[in-house]
């Protein structure tokens, strides 16, 4: 089983936290020191880091800015549904509040929290518990405050008004900044010095419909969440390094060049990948497919994607895409547009 700190996530959260601290006068190189995160990775929409790397980034932020109450609430204001990509879209397509909470909990590995999140049905209330027992004490406040702000931002993105009957449990002493924060998002007083952080939603709110909810589209996004979680769970070791190099090269690179970049022979590269249950061809095809999907979903034409990925012609790219995905890139792009627009 993958260790929680080895789980992969996009660099989006690391980028947001880095920019938050840079705007407060901390040099970027101080924030990234010892994390293994490069400045280039923060700008790369396909790059990934581990939860452990982001933890080190948060430690650097606390070392530079301190651990004052409210710092994480400010940082968390940058996190919204759109920040979370396909995970956020799956939540947004839920038919009601209960459905959104269940989807968010089921695919929480795709969120940027460092906590273990569990959902408890207590009859008259639905309680989401944020277990931060694995989070080191030095970043605990920053991490949990960021989660509090993220959850409330996501709620506003789903339904843009304050919902009654939501109670927030805060595992810290009462602070003026917490009183102000809670008063903006709930009419129920918070519970201070709680054993664990939690959000509690009364049953009367469960069936409240979400305006943009769409069960059919939601199932498509949920399937994409499942696929993304599976892909990330299978990545690691040499395979992960190969994928990163392929992404940097636009998805097209010779096996010999990749082996040289990793300071090993082609034979050694093949053996190491075999030990991880894959081959260079499989990794290359997967990376190519993911890049192609992202570019087509972003609105690029088939010709533009072919050029971006280094193909000699649109037809050569189309043939490669069809063999990987089982459909033409044009059909794939049209299907994605229908999913996004509902048309």
Report on this structure:
With 343 residues, the protein is an alpha+beta fold. It folds into three domains: 1-66, no CATH class; 86-213, no CATH class; 235-341, Arc Repressor Mutant, subunit A (Orthogonal Bundle), CATH 1.10.10. It has 17 helices and seven strands. The chain has a five-stranded mixed sheet with strand order 3-4-7-5-6, covered by helices on one side. α1 (12-22) runs parallel beside α4 (51-65), α6 runs antiparallel to α7 (97-106) and α6 runs antiparallel to α10 (215-234). The longest helix has 22 residues, at 137-158. It is globular, with a radius of gyration of 22 Å. The chain starts with 7 loop residues before the first strand and ends with a helix. The model has no long low-confidence stretch (mean pLDDT 88).
Keywords:
single chain, 343 residues, alpha+beta, Arc Repressor Mutant, subunit A, 3 domains, 5-stranded mixed beta sheet, two-stranded antiparallel ribbon, globular
Helix content bin: 55-70%
The share of residues in extended strands comes to: 5-15%
The helix tally amounts to 17
Largest sheet: 5 strands, mixed
Look at the structure and give the mean pLDDT: 88
- Kindly report the oligomeric state of this protein: single chain
Spatially, the strands of the biggest sheet line up as 3-4-7-5-6
Q: Which term fits the overall shape?
A: globular
Structural class: alpha+beta
Uncertain spans, ≥5 residues at pLDDT below 50? none
**Distance from first to last alpha carbon:** 41 Å
Number of domains: 3
User: What's the order of the H and E elements?
Assistant: EHHHEHHHHEEHEHEEHHHHHHHH
